[in-house]
Fold this protein.
Amino acid sequence: MRKRSVKNVLLDLLVVVVVCMALLPFYFMLTTALKTSAGSVAYPPQIFPEEITLQHFKDVLNPDIFPFWRYFWNSFQVAFGTAALAVIIGSMGAYSLAKLDFPGRKLIQESSLVVYMFSGIVLVVPLFKIISGIGLYDNKLSLVITCLVTTLPATLFMLSSYFASIPVSLEEAAMIDGLSRFQVIYKIVMPLSIPAIMSVFAYVFMIAWNDFLFSSIFLSTPDKLTLPIGLRQLFSSKDYVWGRMMAASFLTAIPVVFMFSMVEKFITGGLVAGGVKE
Amino acid sequence: MLRLASKAPKPRSALQKSESRLGILFILPSLILIASVIIYPIIYNIYLSFHRVSLNPLKPHKPIGLSNYLTLLQDGNFLKALLMTTVYVAVTVVCSTTVGLLVALLMNRKFKGRGFARSLVILPYVAPVISLVFVWRYMFNGIYGVVNYVTVDLLHLFEAVPAWFDHPVLSMTLVVLFDTWRVFPYSFMMILASLQAIDESLYEAARIDGANAWHQFWNITLPEILPVVGSLMILRSIWNFYKFDDVYLLTKQVPIMGVYLYETAFSTNDFGLAASITVVLFLIVMSFVILVRRKVKRV
């Protein structure tokens, strides 16, 4: 019995090590943001900041130095818009795949892997040409549409497997009680699926918020940039300061980390149900 | 309703018809979006790859046959990128899946704070790449970076400060480390969930038969999670074959396919050539998927 508890202590210790490895860069992100400029380039490196300052956070949030809030608002518009559309279009499509029978349904269900094969970098060249051709270049809408579609297979999959778990008898009973198909959907199916809908929302929000590739080619006016592109510019500007960089990085990560932790217990189940796009 | 209807044949078929009409109506927006943002661009891209693409939208593209593809074959950078990508994909897929599997096995026990530990481990996968790349660049900095302090001054693993961002092999190591760290949580989540779905009675029966921990893992756990691990590795291979952002942002020394393609399109502005690279990329991925699908029956 004693041997067993020693083994458990060792395994618990290993868990702590794994968690620390996962969090180490986040730790340095936050502490460097709080270090003075001299402290961030000191050698040997300061594991614990010797002097703490909030100056870098103030600088990053100061519109004269870095238009953080402008970029934040742009990112938010893109991420929120994409996530909201994903929930609406995804719910309709997923309900159709889960509950309604129509010719070609099987084919659509089985072709999600095909969509994975054509996403990200292989869409960049033709999409850029098309987007410029139809005058959507430097328009956030192009970003919304692209993120919406590249996440759509995952959205459909997550939602339809959730809808499929809602018993048909429940819907039948409601229809016998006189509810129409539409009423069944928004009075019964949707309220029951709130965890799945929240997960999809958070997941799509995260993808759109974090997107670097498409934002970097679709947007150009400084006023319209999203946070990842704004951050990149801050880094390549001559007078970058580590503290500012880390403060901005930290603030950029906060919304998605917060959002994900809210729905984490739902999303893992949904993500796991099948292959999901990053 | 459905059951009631099945007794009377006539309304049933009417209902079915309306069901199927509604089904098509609901799936239509998704299909239109996928057709216009994925399928049409892919076809358009094939068209572009046979042209010298003009930058001026008013000028037509000039058809040049296979010229772009011939240029590619003679371009040493293309073959270099292909080789690098193959190495990158092979190593990262194995590393991230293995780490994910080990951490999942480690966390598939009951211990205090398991839920919390799990949420923390997932963070690298959730945070924006851009934030993570910057802090990695800070930590691996050649002058005041903590990684060099620990590996050179404290542990004496290297004689001199390693050029993480400039030396080709070290840069490859760096991007592999970064990707493993960033995406292992995904494998971890998927494998953990499939571990938790294994019927506990299987282990009980095995213990009664006197199977040790290793036997239990080999004969029960592994066969149960193998399908998940398999599809995980296939998906990760596709994603990493198309990898761009973190490698591009970390170093200029690892021009994998995604980076090569991006630079050809947006630095050299040779969209025709970039289109032909794109075609080659998805041909490779398609043959890979067909090949593994034949080998592994259901993925």
Remarks:
- Chain A has two domains: 1-53, 54-272.
- The CA atoms of residues 43 and 49 of chain A lie 12 Å apart.
- Confidence is low (pLDDT under 50) at residues 272-278 of chain A.
- Chain A touches chain B through 97 residues (CB under 8 Å).
